[in-house]
Amino acid sequence: MATAGVRRRFCRCACFSTENLYVARYGLHLRFLDEQQLRQDYGPILHSRGCVSNEDFQQLLVELKQEVARRRRLGQDSAARKALIVSSYCPVRPNIYSALQDAALAPEFLAAAQYSVSLGADLAGLLQRLETVSEEKRIYRVPVFTAPFCQALLEELEHFEESDMPKGRPNTMNNYGVLLDELGLDEPLVTPLRERFLQPLMALLYPDCGGPWLDSHRAFVVKYAWGQDRELGCHYDNSELTLNVALGKAFTGGALYFGGLFQAPAALMQPLEVEHVVGQGVLHRGGQLHGAQALGTGERWNLVVWLRASAVRNRLCPMCCREPDLVDDEGFGDGFTREEPPMVDVCALT
Predict the structure, then answer these.
(1) Which of 184, 188, 149, 182 is CA-nearest to residue 168?
(2) 0.85 cut: is pTM over it?
(3) What is the pLDDT of residues 17-41, one digit of tens each?
(4) Residue 164 — φ and ψ, nearest 5°?
(5) Among 103, 212, 229, 332, which is disulfide-ready with 216 (CB 3.0 to 4.6 Å)?
(6) Peptide bond into 249 cis (omega under 30)
(7) CA distance linking residue 90 with residue 226, whole number of Å
(8) Which helix (H) or strand (E) holds 54?
(9) d(CA 186, CA 97)
């Protein structure tokens, strides 16, 4: 079963404004309501991480208040940036904005997706067409895009990066990269990638994690380079499932590392390391603890697609682990809906 591609109103959980506020220099995700709560909940651990003086704490307070305000404006600000980009930006690779063609996709990916919707398809058969990175952690890898497509997409992303267009942060932990919705690549690229190809794969790989009911996504490209972001701390994704594709360029280091499902970061002792391979995508559950090691040399660009199933998250927000307190939002929001999603046969999406 899968959700139909019907445009519905999507929402955020209200916890987005106050939960999981990432402070890189202390390596912590914080909940923030006010100064008293912050001191009470995090005073000792902040002190142990270097937040020692009153000046340190006041600087942290300013940053947290600014981040809360940014998150509350996020939908409105993103819509304004997208409107300006649509009206003023001139792409260097306009063909990237055409509807996704099979020629952009690796033969192995096409074969896996085709098998997934064939009569009698099952997990064992699909796994013969993927690389199993970790059976225990249910992490898989498969070539997704061809080398020419990766190169063309990178050229477009770099052209946009060098333009004077406004740019939003990819997520709450990365500072450099591109939101594909704002650039206008959601509808021609990411939505068909999810509906036509990822949907049937994930339905077989993760039937218990929302795989059969994916109905929205958040897609962004992250960039790692010297003088910018170089690594990424331990975290969970705000997704049921995640696709992470290495686009390039030439680089060393920066491997992904994985812990357990919803494992506490402090308990991560022997992570599983997964090297990036350009053009190939790593598939994993959003709740799988993971991060990225420091970049050695060069630049690394990755396309990340957070895949969401409202049928799952409407019952429990993966970020606050409570019944979601819904707030209307722009676009796909954070994948929550006020109504149950309609269901159709997955074969209808092919």
Answers:
(1) 182
(2) yes
(3) 999 899 989 989 899 999 999 999 9
(4) -95, 15
(5) 332
(6) yes
(7) 28
(8) helix 54-88
(9) 9
